[in-house]
Design brief:
Blueprint: H1 4-13, H2 16-47, H3 49-52, E1 58-62, E2 74-75, H4 76-83, E3 88-102, E4 109-117, H5 127-130, E5 141-145, H6 155-160, E6 166-171, E7 178-186, E8 197-201, H7 202-208, E9 216-217, E10 219-224, H8 230-240, E11 245-249, H9 250-263, H10 266-296, H11 298-306, H12 311-348, H13 356-377, H14 379-382, H15 386-389
Parallel strand pairs: 4-8, 5-7
Antiparallel strand pairs: 1-10, 1-11, 2-9, 3-4, 3-6, 3-10, 5-8, 6-7
Helix pairs in contact: 1-12, 2-10, 2-12, 2-13, 10-13, 12-13
């Protein structure tokens, strides 16, 4: 077996240019898979970032809930009903709606996600929001997401320079803007459905959206008492609250968001399709490489068969070539992908980042591609008869 490895390597490296082209092709496939998986992961991380930063044990949502960016309001009275259940310590309403923020430089308006909260108690785990919570008690004072996309203008930069920053927000049906002042910054970041975020007090939120009924909220945050059993409280609330709302845990809340983007939007399907296509193209590319290599060395393989070497020995050589191609092609693909991840993160502000899970997944996929291609390409070798060659 030790002697098999040099044979596989020597056959591949005999024609240096062909070998390098083969590695470049496999590296390209690895980059495609890394980018598709990276953006898919960024989709889920960005879409559920708000869920992970909410300070609560259970969450009350509309029975028609689809995702954060699709308004499904319900009566605030349902949240106050939940407050009367055993084990519930406190409840907090959350208002969310899209508005348009006017760029002060070019006058263009861009969608901004506005989150209305009670400024008396924090519903976020983010320290940069908790520290500035009192600022929201001042009328028309807002917190701006410094990680928002650049089309909103240099709001964060000007604020950090000590300038007084006022912006104009338009409700989607409003022709007249509502002016607010930036009182602080926080970091949440955009997603595939949101370009930027503002956190405001409930009173400021209702001033921005005057047609929005105060009794209609989007999420109810339920905090339990320290000695409460979350599953027991959840079951009790689910059984006794009206069926126009439902109670979920944080994990269920996050799963609902992921399922929405995966199953109910075209983008989720396209990511899976593109990963599959990259894998399929990779199998075809590597198959062509291995098949061409077998064809060019057919006389040598026939000689080995005539000398008494079994098919198993020859097949092992081909599979070793497949593993060498997959492993060596993966390395430049991995390095290039790290650079592309940084570029994509800076350009889109999305959490596109390399991690060990992605690295292992693509490496495993690359090796599997090579093994599948190796199996397919050995069909000609298995049928090879030395008498047909000599």
């Amino acid at each position: 077996m030790i002697l098999n490895i040099p044979l596989a390597w020597l056959q591949l490296s005999r024609q240096t240019s062909r070998f390098l082209v083969a590695l470049a092709g496999i590296a390209f496939i690895a980059v495609l898979m890394f980018m598709q998986i990276g953006f898919q992961d960024a989709l889920y991380v960005s879409a559920t970032k708000l869920h992970n930063n909410l300070q609560g044990d259970l969450f009350l949502i509309s029975a028609q809930y689809k995702s954060l960016t699709s308004n499904q309001s319900f009566s605030r009275w349902r949240l106050y009903q939940a407050l009367g259940f055993e084990g519930v310590e406190s409840v907090s309403p959350l208002y969310m709606q899209f508005a348009k923020l006017k760029n002060r430089i070019n006058g263009l308006k861009f969608p901004m996600y506005v989150i209305g909260i009670d400024p008396v108690k924090s519903v976020f785990t983010m320290s940069d929001v908790q520290e500035k919570l009192k600022l929201l008690q001042i009328p028309n004072m807002v917190l701006f997401d410094r990680a928002s996309r650049p089309e909103f203008g240099a709001i964060a930069k000007e604020f950090e320079q000590g300038k007084s920053v006022k912006v104009e927000i338009f409700g989607y049906l409003a022709f007249v803007g509502y002016k607010v002042q930036v009182g602080g910054l926080f970091s949440l970041g955009p997603s595939f459905g949101v370009d930027g975020n503002l956190i405001v007090s409930t009173s400021t939120f209702l001033a921005i959206f005057p047609d929005r009924p105060v009794q209609n909220i989007d999420i109810g945050i339920i905090k339990l008492k320290p000695d409460a059993n979350p599953q027991k409280v959840l079951a009790n609330l689910s059984a006794k609250l009206p069926k126009d709302v439902k109670v979920v845990t944080r994990q269920e809340f996050i799963k609902m968001e992921k399922d929405y983007w995966t199953l109910r939007t075209p983008i989720g399907f396209m990511f899976y399709l593109m990963v599959f296509m990259a894998f399929f193209v990779g199998v075809v590319v590597i198959y062509q490489i291995l098949y061409s290599n077998i064809s060019s060395h057919l006389a040598e393989y026939a000689t080995l068969k005539a000398m008494g070497f079994k098919d198993k020995y020859l097949l092992i050589v081909v599979f070793q070539q497949a593993l060498i191609l997959g492993t060596l092609g993966y390395i430049p693909g991995f390095a290039i992908s790290i650079c592309l991840y940084d570029i994509a993160k800076n350009m889109t502000q999305l959490p596109v980042a390399m991690n060990i899970q992605k690295a292992i997944l693509v490496l495993t996929s690359a090796i599997l591609m090579c093994l599948v291609s190796g199996f397919l390409s050995t069909n000609k070798l298995r049928k090879l008869d030395p008498a047909d060659i000599f």
